[in-house]
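User: two proteins, same treatment. go.

Assistant:
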Amino acid sequence: MSHERRRHRVRHVRHFGTSYQSSLFQRLLVLVLGPLAIVAAVYVLVHVLPAGQEASESSLSPDTIAMATFDTMTRLAIAYVLAIACAVPLAISATMNRTTEAILLPIFDILESVPILALFPVVIMVFVNYFHSLDGAAVFILFMTMLWNIVFPLIGGLQIIPGDVIAAAKVFGVEGFAFVRRVLLPALVPQMVTGSILAMAQGWNIIIVAEVLHTYIPGGTSAQDLFGIGSILVDASANAQNGVFLEAVFALVVVIGLLNLLVWQRLLHISQRFRFE
């Protein structure tokens, strides 16, 4: 019996994405050792590799790092909420019938293929001239980066809803908004979580570009950059402030690790309840 339990346990753990049987201690160990390993590697690189100029050692207060991280996460959160709000109706519209699917899916493919960073200077000029908001430009670029990472998984989720489920809903008179609320939205939960993880990963990747705006503004200066963890990283790297750079990297990795541990893993586990067998 014990042998069978061990075999079942191994299979259970290996089915990644369905359940998380590792102990809290193991997760916390990874959360601590992961950031420390990354920071140690960065520290070795910045001190061993020859620098082009003498390093300017300095550090930021914990309050400054915390505020920068909060500002960055606020931009990411706003962009993510907007992406979810737009992705759900777009996905439902694209799979409403064969006609809309034939029209909208090629359009989505083209829009996804357009390099958003190539349009970033235009986006900044529009937001500066018409909305007087650099923060708006950053949120918009993050929104566009996240959107398609959510739309296409949602479309895939809608396409795999069993026909029996749809037929049963029609038999019981579940139509219109009730059909969306009781059938479509629950069916989208697993793909929404997966797409959200991909979208946030893309957001973290692009945050440096989204906050360091002066390179996209003609005659721009670093004073036009947005305060956040991304701009701190770029500024510290440009000024050879190794201490600040390490602090920013550590804060970034810890925040991403905490989000993964406390939010995304839990949501992945919960989303399995909505999967069709």
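Protein 2:
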Amino acid sequence: MQHRISLKAVQAFEAAARLSSFALAAEELFVTPSAVSHQVKLLEEQFGVKLFHRVHRAVVLTDAGRVYAEEVSSAFSKIEMATRELGRTAKSDILTVHSTPSFATQWLMPRLARFSAMHPDIDVRLNASYPPPADLLLQGVDIDIRYGSARRLQPAGTMVLPFPTETIVPLCAPAIANGPHPIRSPEDLRHHTLIHSEVCLVGWRDWMRLHRKVPLDISRGPRFDRSFMAISAAVDGLGVCLESLLLVERELDTGRLIAPLGLDGLKVQGYTVNLLKSRADLPKVRNFQDWLFNQLEARRPS
């Protein structure tokens, strides 16, 4: 027996079963009642099963028709749900960005609204963890922002785009810089607690090499494995941190932190953008990459 059936016939049966009327089904489907009756009759003849009892102007499902209607209605509901979901997802692209926590917290999050305003058709999914770096191939990440040694762990076919050079300087709360032991020269740091950011590519030991005549006790002071925690500690007046100007733009703009010894310091190339070459020309990836580097260049210290 040939069981391949017309979707039009199934649609007519489902509407008639749901509305208990050929006339109402015809009105919903924009056909005549006789067309609905004809389609239902085709199903009944094809399978040799009576689907409706015809009672005057009404139709009542048979037991076989009721079982079939339940299955057909469930299938049409799934199609309708899938269609609604397609309508929602087709209006936007989801861009998955993975970033180190400190860059995500200190720099990227405060600016995401700007990107969304420029590209309302792109929804950003931001994930932040460290370590390990994201797997561009297995985790569905479009853009991975990495730092330090994690930059070397890329799969084949990865594009690696370096950030502009960062500047690392001592930073502290205004109350520390202008307190009982003012900070006006590198030597003044001897009177203050040094905050250590253990993942930063530049530490107090490197700073001491630049200022050889300034003996600091770098064996003491609180230590953090995230730059955003070291920055937060400095804002709270715990001591002086040695961090990137890239990560403290908000704190400098609001006056919660100052650079008591100026904005000139050690240079480092720490962050990179990593993406698969096969996805580089996707509009959502290209738009975010262009926006990111424009933002980075716009706020670089002169």
